[in-house]
Design goal:
- The structure is a single chain.
- By secondary structure, this protein is an alpha/beta fold.
- It is built from 13 helices and 13 strands.
- The strands form 3 sheets. The chain has an 8-stranded mixed beta sheet with strand order 2-9-8-7-6-3-4-5, sandwiched between helices.
- Helix 5 (141-149) links the parallel strand 3 and strand 4.
- Helix 4 runs parallel beside helix 5 and helix 12 (361-370) crosses helix 13 (402-425).
- The longest helix is centred in the C-terminal third of the chain and has 30 residues, at 306-335.
């Protein structure tokens, strides 16, 4: 296996010269490729074009006969709540359906907790001396941005193949009452693509917490997003599990159709216990006079039920799978015979998590950008944008077409080798 640390200085200089020559050839092509976000591509968005016309001129009433063109129904139309409940394997009475963004619902959930507390709080979180959140890393940059916005201290906990390191999580939450919550992406985590084991889920549901109002922000964004529709992962219904463990109020669960139908015009939900739902509704009564119920009807008519969602996701998988295969093949061909990088091979979700030589991720991303290929900034997958090892890079294969994806990943690999070789020479 090629190890730059074991090379002589002369061999390293030759290797760097060869890599720089190859890098220059890519740079001369003036690429303009964006790999920074996990956006659906046009072909995926086209799958839902029928949604634009699926409602007839008289299709404006829900199953109860309510006129959805009007104000009202704060928690969403019954059939939309039933659709999410079926997908999440929970009860429709515990689901509130709103607009297109689950991130919006997460932001609101944190904002409400800060200003008013949650069921079980002695006072609003903003009145506490300190509020902290556990953040499994690497993780979703927008989660970290939300907690940072409200001045919540973020505590890194490493991910394992089974989910967050539960020994560390259990120790932290049991002994620190300032820890009020935790971010979780339980199925095909962002960016590692890890699905939490049942044991991890049970520990999260049952663990002792020093804060009586501790909340798990259960972002089930990728619960129906396998890359191979014949080999999908799942986790237990967290609402039922928490109730079974005597902690019914512990979890706020989020999901959306952002990567099922149209990313900018989907529907999103929050699922929670009876008491949490009552608490949420008491606040959104003052926040809105009702969501876009016509869009909710459109989604139900188009998707129909959970089986309809799964059939749609088979079509998405057929588009995404070749892209993931291509990225993984290039990584294997370029980097597997070195000791400078490793990566996850996810079964689903939207990302591949690449770990490059310690201390070189920022350099790698900068080298790629100079070649016209933009990745998510190095460090973004950690709170405050600070990866302590400067190693993780998030690859988002979904948006570019295959003919753009290939050179983008080749440039990433060359940049990874070049940065590692320069580091071994002492230049970084």
């Amino acid at each position: 296996m090629l190890s730059y640390e074991k090379m002589s200085k002369d061999d390293l200089l030759k290797e760097i010269s060869s890599l720089e020559e190859r890098y220059s050839q890519y740079k001369e092509k003036n690429y303009n490729l964006n790999m920074s976000r996990g956006k659906p591509c046009k072909e995926q968005l086209d799958l839902s074009d029928e949604m634009a016309t699926c409602l007839g001129e008289n299709d404006y009433k829900d199953q109860s006969g309510f006129d959805c063109r009007n104000y009202g129904i704060l928690d969403g139309v019954p059939e939309a709540r039933a659709l999410f409940a079926e997908v999440l394997a929970t009860n429709a009475k515990n689901v509130i359906v709103q607009g297109n963004s689950s991130l919006n619902l997460m932001y609101d959930a944190i904002s409400r907790a800060m200003h008013f507390g949650v069921p079980g709080s002695d006072k609003p979180w903003c009145k506490e001396d300190k509020v902290s959140f556990i953040c499994p890393v690497p993780g979703y940059d927008r989660h970290f941005a939300v907690t940072n916005e409200f001045g919540i201290e973020m505590i890194n906990v490493p991910m394992t193949s089974q989910g967050p390191d539960m020994d560390k999580v259990e120790d932290l939450v049991a002994n620190d009452p300032s820890i009020k919550g935790m971010w979780c992406v339980p199925v095909y985590s962002n960016p590692d693509g890890i699905t939490y084991s049942e044991e991890t889920c049970r520990k999260l549901a049952s663990m002792k917490t020093a804060a009586p109002d501790f909340r798990i922000m259960w972002d089930n964004a990728y619960c129906v997003h396998p890359i191979d529709s014949n080999d999908s992962d799942s986790v237990p219904d967290m609402l039922s599990l928490c109730e079974e463990c005597g902690n019914a109020n512990r979890v706020f669960e989020f999901a959306s159709t952002s990567k099922v139908t149209w990313a900018g015009a989907g529907i999103a939900c929050i699922a929670a216990s009876d008491e949490n739902i009552s608490y949420i509704k008491s606040h959104i009564t003052l926040q809105t006079i009702g969501p876009d119920k016509i869009n909710q009807l459109r989604h139900v008519k188009f998707l129909k039920n959970a089986d309809g969602v799964y059939e749609m996701m088979k079509k998405h998988a057929a588009i995404l799978r070749p892209k993931f295969i291509s990225v993984l093949e290039i990584l294997k061909n370029e980097l597997s015979m070195t000791d400078i990088a490793n990566w996850n091979e996810p079964k689903g979700g939207y990302f591949i998590s690449l770990f490059v030589k310690l201390g070189t991720a920022k350099t790698v991303v900068a080298l790629c950008k100079a070649c016209g290929v933009e990745f998510t900034p190095a460090g973004a997958t950690f709170p405050y944008g600070k990866d302590p090892e400067d190693s993780n890079i998030r690859i988002a294969p979904s948006f570019p077409p295959l003919h753009e994806l290939t050179p983008a990943i080749e440039i990433l690999c060359v940049s990874t080798k070049l940065a590692a070789a320069r580091k071994a020479l002492g230049e970084i």
